[in-house]
Amino acid sequence: xxxxxxxxxxxxxxxxxxxxxxxxxxxxxxxxxxxxxxxxxxxxxxxxxxxxxxxxxxxxxxxxxxxxxxxxxxxxxxxxxxxxxxxxxxxxxxxxxxxxxxxxxxxxxxxxxxxxxxxxxxxxxxxxxxxxxxxxxxxxxxxxxxxxxxxxxxxxxxxxxxxxxxxxxxxxxxxxxxxxxxxxxxxxxxxxxxxxxxxxxxxxxxxxxxxxxxxxxxxxxxxxxxxxxxxxxxxxxxxxxxxxxxxxx
Amino acid sequence: xxxxxxxxxxxxxxxxxxxxxxxxxxxxxxxxxxxxxxxxxxxxxxxxxxxxxxxxxxxxxxxxxxxxxxxxxxxxxxxxxxxxxxxxxxxxxxxxxxxxxxxxxxxxxxxxxxxxxxxxxxxxxxxxxxxxxxxxxxxxxxxxxxxxxxxxxxxxxxxxxxxxxxxxxxxxxxxxxxxxxxxxxxxxxxxxxxxxxxxxxxxxxxxxxxxxxxxxxxxxxxxxxxxxxxxxxxxxxxxxxxxxxxxxx
Lengths: 249, 249
Hints:
Two copies of one chain form a homodimer. Chain A is α+β, with helices and mostly antiparallel strands. Chain A has two domains: 1-55, Orthogonal Bundle (Hypothetical Oxidoreductase Yiak, Chain: A, domain 1); 56-237, Malate/L-lactate/L-sulpholactate dehydrogenase, NADPH binding domain (Ribosomal Protein S8, Chain: A, domain 1). The first copy, chain A, is 36% helix and 16% strand. Chain A has eight helices and seven strands. Chain A has helices at 3-12, 17-32, 41-48, 77-90, 110-119, 172-176, 193-210, 230-237, and strands at residues 59-64, 67-71, 96-102, 123-128, 149-153, 161-165, 218-223. Chain A has a seven-stranded mixed sheet, sandwiched between helices. In chain A, helix 4 (77-90) links the parallel strand 2 and strand 3. In chain A, helix 1 (3-12) packs across helix 2. The two termini of chain A are 24 Å apart. At the A-B interface, strand 3, strand 5, strand 6, helix 7 and helix 8 of A face strand 3, strand 5, strand 6, helix 7 and helix 8 of B.
């Protein structure tokens, strides 16, 4: 799908020209980096929604020093994420900022947002919750979303390093596409699945404790780096593929 | 080992009464929760060190709003972690604080420190780097430490939920104890080991970017919660074991 077509289909749903462009960039980046579950399928999802309010705007409810709390306020999660990231880029923190975003779902591929911040020279750590799909490996009810964690570190030479890891063993997009069964969905890790589950629980409660509005949300930490570790890390890696260099992780 | 014996052996190494008590509490908590690799074996390690300076003190080099940068300054990592956590407990943040601690290693079991903060009603997220022991699953040089991530969330009822997850497939304490071979050591996750590796890389570079002094370090985020999600989460779990309820994760 061309950027023009993506923007035009989103505009047809009522999104402003700015928002349609922001969402098209997000979905087409996901396609280009092999994460089609976060790609243009999301335009079809939006088109199928009967409750879509493409003009709703998020609200920044609390600003206090390095802390902000946002409320999606009925806006599509992607729109809220775009507005948050643009607010940081327009006014980056001197040292750190923590942003708790309630009612902010879906977020899209987290690595897209952290990469944009790292491209601007900022360290970014972002997590977000999603519908409860992971049960404890030892059995029990589904307690957490797939709760990805993305970390992006800028570099003075070349692209940032961007990790973006969901705690699930299968991509939920593959479930939607019929390539995997929802019954197979659990925390990744095999014999160590309790580790991914513990991470998912910690991230779930982190978001729930800091972004306390109904529904799913996100927590973003942005920091100005004091050092530039990526070039030496890439040299040490000696050509090994690093997170964010391609589609995976 | 009794608390008295632990404190007395640590005091014999030159630690102050306060520091000996703080380290004894850390090691005995690890023993009591089944993490013997972080337990009294660490006293023997300290006793075996020829470069130990039990009187060195960490320095808080930068304090700017919600950001602090510390330098271990030759102090044992455990001492630096104790001093950081005590400083937060003595003066907790209104909303958030991010502390980057350079030259702060070893830290001991991260879950001990985040639990202490959560016991005081604070959300805590802590990671730390360690000697490079994890290589990319597809092959290549060892690029990261085992880089655990701990997240603790306080609760108005009962204990906090505390996740504490290393990105390695075996406990390095088991390698030291001869129960596992260092050759077996890699990122956890089996077919999804690229996920744990990506997390280890992100956490490695996060610490390296924010705590830029030679050697390993730690990054701590402390936040005051806006909600109390743990009681409802425990109710939903319906008796399933949750992170921090026992020795594992």
